[in-house]
Amino acid sequence: MDTPETARCRLYLITPPSIAHPALFADELRGALDGGDVAVLQLRLKEVPDDVVARTADVLRPICQQRGVAFIMNDRPDLALKLDCDGVHVGQQDAPYADARRLLGPDRIVGVTCKASRHLAMEAAEAGADYVAFGAFFTSSTKEATTPASPDILAWWSEIMTVPSVAIGGITADNCRPLVEAGADFLAVANGVWAHPDGPTQAVRRFNAVFDACFQ
Ligand SMILES: Cc1ncc(COP(=O)(O)OP(=O)(O)O)c(N)n1
Ligand SMILES: Cc1ncsc1CCOP(=O)(O)O
Ligand SMILES: [Mg+2]
């Protein structure tokens, strides 16, 4: 997740909210990864029993890790460790950053939701978070209750901080350009890839075409 100041923006995929058949979703994931550069896949299954999360992780993690894509668990530092994930993403209602770091050690990734708060982001970065996540930038069909964020926060952050930023919330290949131009290091996307009318491969290709256009 290293991002020098001028680094090209990268995709941070988030799984759909439910995965009924991990083997079928694995094919969609392979298709998405065939579409171009992807930095991260976050496994985000809410209110699903741990054994189901574990079985899903065991199918998806090797696909990611074989292709150099970091595999991140949402919400649960304990599962991230148990299932040998590359890291965890924690929100303000989840385990505190310090607890996640203590459990996962210095080498795994710990990212923190900061909504639209400069204060939360400064706190997380000073505590040692590997990235700070801002959003939602657009209406999300994946998560209803969100805090509206404006691209200004990405521009402010990239001016003064080196810790990478992740932008999230309703992002598509068609609306993402202002976020990339404002300095987002990563775009976290669920629906904009898995529900793209032309499929995940094309979606990833189109995001990367926008990144190419902004970083040439
Ligand atoms: C990259 C990234 N950013 C933000 C979130 C949201 O986390 P949180 O606020 O804990 O909400 P839930 O995802 O748990 O519903 C995220 N998951 N990933
Ligand atoms: C987890 C989360 N947090 C804020 S918006 C969001 C959902 C992201 O999914 P989508 O890209 O489909 O809006
Ligand atoms: Mg959470």
Describe the structure.
It is a single chain. This protein has helices at residues 22-34, 50-66, 77-82, 97-104, 118-127, 152-160, 177-182, 191-194, 200-214, and strands at 10-14, 40-43, 70-74, 87-90, 109-115, 131-135, 165-168, 186-189. It is of the alpha/beta class. The chain has one domain (10-214): TIM Barrel. The protein has an eight-stranded parallel barrel, surrounded by five helices. Helix 1 (22-34) packs parallel to helix 2 (50-66) and helix 1 runs parallel beside helix 9. The two termini are 21 Å apart. The relative contact order is 0.17. The model has no long low-confidence stretch (mean pLDDT 96). Bound molecules: the ligand Cc1ncc(COP(=O)(O)OP(=O)(O)O)c(N)n1, 4-methyl-5-hydroxyethylthiazole phosphate and magnesium ion (MG). 4-methyl-5-hydroxyethylthiazole phosphate binds at residues 14, 135-136, 140-143, 146, 168-171, 189-192. 4-methyl-5-hydroxyethylthiazole phosphate binds next to helix 8. Pathway: Cofactor biosynthesis; thiamine diphosphate biosynthesis; thiamine phosphate from 4-amino-2-methyl-5-diphosphomethylpyrimidine and 4-methyl-5-(2-phosphoethyl)-thiazole: step 1/1. InterPro entries: Aldolase_TIM, ThiamineP_synth_sf, ThiamineP_synth_TenI, TMP_synthase. This is Thiamine-phosphate synthase. Keywords: Magnesium, Metal-binding, Thiamine biosynthesis, Transferase.
